[in-house]
Amino acid sequence: MEKTEKNDDELSFDISKVTRFFKKDRKEHHHAPAHAAETRTEAPVPTGKERSSSRWELARQTALKYSPFLLLLIPIFFSIFIRMQPVDFPLADSWAASTLDNALKQQMTTQVTQQYPNLPAANKDALIASQMQKFKEANRQEYDAQKNTLAEQLRDHFRDEQGYIYMPDIDPYFYLRYARNIVEKGTPGDIIKDGKPWDTHGLAPIGGVVTSQMPPYILAWIYRIMHLINPRITLMEAAKYAPIIFIALSIIPIFFIGRRMAGNFGGFIAGMMLAVHGALVNRTIFGHADNDAYNIFFSVFIFWLFIECYEQRDWRKKLALGVGAGILTGLFSWAWTGWWYVFDFTLAATGLYIAYLLIKKRKDLRQFHKDETVRNSAMSLGIFILSAGIFVSLISTIGTFLRAPLQPLNFLILKVAAKASLWPNVYTTVAELNEASLQSIIGVMGGMFLLGLAVLGLILLLIGKDKKDENWLYAFIIALWLGAMLYASTKGIRFTMLVVPPLALGFGITAGKIYHWASTLAARELHIHKAIMAVVCCIAFLLPLGITPIPPFCSQGMCGSSLAAAKGDIPIVNDAWYNALTKIKQDSRPDAIINSWWDFGHHFKYIADRAVTFDGGSQNRPQAHWIGKVLLTSDEDQAIAILRMLDCGANTAFDIVENHSGDTKRGVDTIYRLLGTDAKQGRALLKDSGMPDDKAQQVIDRVYCQPPEDYFITSDDMVGKGSVWAHFGSWNFERASIWINTRSKSQEEAIAFMKREFGYDDEQAERTYFEVQSLGSEGEANSWIAPWPAFVSNGGCASASNSSMRCQLNLGSQRIDIDIDLRTMEPVVENAKDKPTLTTIAYVDAKGFHQKWFNGTTLPYGLTIIRDDNGNVQALLMSPELTGSMFTRLYFFNGIGLKHFRLFDTENSFVGTKVYVWKLDWEGKEGKTQQASKTAAEGA
Q1: What string of DSSP letters covers 350-417?
Q2: What residues have CB less than 8 Å from 774, skipping those under 6 apart?
Q3: CA 885 to CA 635: how far, in whole Å?
Q4: CA dist list (Å): 71 to 271, 273, 470, 605
Q5: What are the structural domain ranges in the chain?
Q6: How far is CA 752 from CA 447, 575, 661, 746, 762, in A?
Q7: Which of 147, 59, 62, 57 lies closest to 96 in space, CA to CA?
Q8: Could you tell me which of 239, 244, 249 has the C-alpha nearest to residue 215?
Q9: Is 811 in a helix, a strand, or coil?
Q10: Is residue 923 exposed (0-12), middle (13-18) or buried (19+ Cβ within 10 Å)?
């Protein structure tokens, strides 16, 4: 054990010394008279002062004994307090107050304007503010009552039937559904198939084996335990406590690691940073029952046990601690696929440590293997590797363990534009995997100041009178952890939370070392009591974390931002989503399938209890292209053919065709040709390609089957994501093949490839080759392979004359005026040079939906004209590809003119959520009849 644990660098106050300042006579003694000892044999009765001194001494000893635990409780309290803020949705109170104030301001503005029509604007605003304040003070009780009533109404919009707030994020619904199956069926799968748990809700209609994962079991057990205490609690509500519990537990090892390296004060400051750092708080707030909290929990506990294993000299205890670290590593591999990083860092750091020892003991290398430090290092690492290998192999697979050293290479391919299979890489557009600059990541972590203090801690660990050889090992681990995770964060911002533990340890070590040196120096040279220095250092090192010594303690800086983020957490599910999905569940068959973009697939599966085409666990699959094409295409028949294929067999029709042709590009082309034909023509096409009859029949069954019920969802969030799904929907497999197969080839080889594979002539092949060579990054390649069509802007329109209409929109920071001739519907940009025409326009009249294209001098934009129920006209500016797309027609034009999409449900929310649910009419007869009736009614 570390000898410095008894040092005075700990936050333990000698209360008896402090009380001496308040004694009237510092020299007074409380001994009995000498003669009394000769005449009395009984023990002397303590005087009042002696009893007081004894009590103070007992208090001092108790404080010393329990000071680590008291200091540990403070960051745990902060962690729980901050993360529990969303439990009753406090944002509703702010919304309610803002709503009432806006209504009150409108009334006051009307009154002041009527009374003082000529009052200057500045004076008018001041008067309005003054009148509002007077009104609220005079009617405080009524105002507060209305605010509370409105706040409850707002909360109700985010509450389930039991009165609990909906789960705030998407991914927790993935684990929550498996946890529900565990509670209800004893297995995470929906069914047992071939002796294995099977998920029937993902990758419809084929599903897949449920990969064994820890989080659903943890959520199920939390529910079971909490249900014993509160029988009313639901699984969803109990699951919300998972991040609270595991981050609170994670503070324990962080504290004791910091304590071993820099005393109690160092452990305390490290624990405080882990408790309040925004990069971690944002992902572990109440309700965010994803695997993020487990990632922190296991990594810091494994590190702690490895350190204690190394420090321990009793071989029995060393073995127990090393095996404990190995068991946790095995459990970590069950909890998260990225488990390997703490294992790899430990291996690499131990290697660096041994290299350090070799350099240090280079004069006596013959005795190197006999050195106690070397033998201890080898034994500690050996126990850890062996136990980790055993338990990772038992809990996961032996392959999972053997691949661990090579896993860091995955970061190099995380953002490649196209996969080797030529299909698009959806991870390039996942928000939490967005790339960022190192400078911005450092800013997120608290800036160069905090990072510099953390690095200083590693330096201080290696210098000073109490330095030890093993400190190099610990410094290597923390440095590798910090540096590698900073780099990983530049490849995906979700990894910023993994920077927090090493940052907290480095910062805590700096705090502990400086406190020890400062308090010792102050006591020896300046005679300043260490208790005073403890307070000073607490303030000095807590202020950078935003924690102030006076109330409110957590309103500034990092702590204040984390608290505000927790209070402002808004559930992504609300009554609009819940009602729409519940209606699907109630009115559909059990084998019905939901199609939409993948983002919300997990809560589709949980609430509607129906299968989905793809979701957050399967987004990086060919389904991204197919659904993107459905949303992008203006050909309804093609959209229906794609949905039929997906509902009949997911992407398996393509898999069979590709296995036969051996070429992705040819396979995709074949599928598209099949989608434009009937079954008879499709069979002939496959026969001509040389496909065996049995394989051809399998393809036919998966392209032309009678599909199950299908519900297609378009929602407001998909407008902002338009560039993403349109990008994948317009994916150019030919260009993807050229990028993958020619970028590293010579000009002659590349040209030969394009001529052979795609029939290019020399000129076209050479031009394309130089285009590829000019691409400087995977991001540029992504844009070269496929465009990013987007919804650009919206604005209002009004009549300019009997035969024209003017629409005003913004294009970036510039306003554009578009005049539309109502006879030709030609949109002309009046305030642009040469008055160019937009490329295309879409609109609806009494005869139905229309789209017109224009030639000549045009701008590369399309325009849609939408008239609402109140007669207001809105214009939307977008990429031409989106103007007549299925999404635009379904979401903005209410499906007018489409024969296969029948409106099933519409739900709206005051927070802007708008959900359209369409039930597919596969034959198109019912939809065609309904549209004809609707068009006739509008014409009349």
Answers
A1: HHHHHHHHHHHTGGGGGGGGG-HHHHHHHHHHHHHHHHHHHHHHHHS-HHHHHTGGGGGGGGGGTT-S
A2: none
A3: 8
A4: 9, 13, 26, 44
A5: 90-156, 172-239, 243-567, 733-785, 791-939
A6: 52, 58, 21, 10, 9
A7: 147
A8: 239
A9: strand
A10: exposed
Q: What is the DSSP letter of 893?
A: S
Cα(710)–Cα(864) distance, integer angstroms = 28
Class of residue 759 by CB neighbours under 10 A (exposed 0-12, middle 13-18, buried 19+):
exposed
Question: Which of 184-193, 321-330, 404-413, 873-882 is predicted with the least confidence, judged by mean pLDDT?
Answer: 404-413
CB–CB of 18/529 below 8 Å?
Answer: yes
**515 CB-near residues (< 8 Å, 6+ apart):** 9, 263, 265, 266, 533, 534, 537, 541
Residues found in the chain: 940
* Nearest alpha carbon to residue 519 among 534, 503, 499, 541: 534
Q: From CA 197, how far away is CA 898, in angstroms rounded?
A: 40
Residue whose token pair is 């990983």 = 488
Residue 64 class from Cβ within 10 Å (0-12 exposed, 13-18 middle, 19+ buried)?
middle
Task: Give dist(CA 7, CA 17) in Å, integer.
Answer: 17
Q: Which of 2-16, 72-86, 165-179, 723-737 has the lowest mean pLDDT?
A: 2-16
Residue 534 reports pLDDT greater than 70: yes
pLDDT above 50 for 520: yes
The strand ranges marked E within 830-927 are 837-845, 848-853, 858-867, 873-878, 901-908, 914-920
What letter would DSSP give residue 210?
-
Supply the DSSP symbol for 31: P
pLDDT in tens, 356-409: 888 887 777 777 777 788 888 889 999 999 999 999 999 999 999 999 988 887
**In this structure, what token pair is assigned to residue 580?**
């729409």
- Of 821, 822, 819, 824, give the one whose Cα is nearest residue 809: 819
Taking phi first (over 0 means left), then psi (-120 to 50 degrees means alpha), and beta for anything else, what does residue 795 get? beta
Q: In the 8-state DSSP scheme, what is residue 164?
A: P
Contact between residue 730 and residue 635 where contact means Cβ atoms under 8 Å apart: no
Q: Which long-range contacts (CB under 8 A, 24 or more apart) does 316-319 make?
A: 318/379, 318/380, 318/383, 319/383
Does an H or E element contain 829, and which?
strand 827-829
Look up residue 653 and give its two tokens. 């029709």
Plot region of 210 (φ>0 → left; ψ -120 to 50 → alpha; else → beta): beta
Say which amino acid occupies 556: Q
Contacts of 450 (CB under 8 A, 6+ apart): 503, 507, 544
Contact in structure between 216 and 178 (CB atoms under 8 Å): yes
Q: What is the pTM of this model?
A: 0.88
